[in-house]
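Q: Could you fold this chain for me?
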Amino acid sequence: MTSNTPTDEKHRTDDRKYESLLSIIAHNTGGSKMPIIIRKSTLNLTFCQKRDYQPNDFNTAISKAMERNDIIMQMGSNNHAECALTLSGAKNTNATYPYRECNISEFESMTERERQKKKSNDKIIRWANQHISHIKSDNDHISIINSTQRE
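A: Sure. Below is the predicted structure, expressed as structure tokens.
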């Protein structure tokens, strides 16, 4: 029989907060009518309201997600920080892949806007291209399944 130490409990609590953060991003981005990114301020507000988490909990969870490369952050329009799930972040949520129903042109537009900047962010370009590839391969896979089922 193992006993739970305060350290074990803190790790479990931190993991729950981290998972909540990824889940909030997944449920508030992607889809056919949702943005592919979420403002950090909106994410913070939603996160803190979820289970009475504190701002420090948000900072810990977002730092953990950044360290694990599960989210990407950029400065968007009007100097607002914006967050989105990376492929690994999307796989680490309990939700389905949030960008499955997205129009690839949204990612292509983001890539093009980023390339036009004087100081483009290569991470954003790679992030968008990874999702474009994933969506295309997922769509190809679905097409193959659908054609097999019709035969």
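A (continued): Helices lie at 6-28, 40-50, 55-67, 87-91, 104-116, 122-150.
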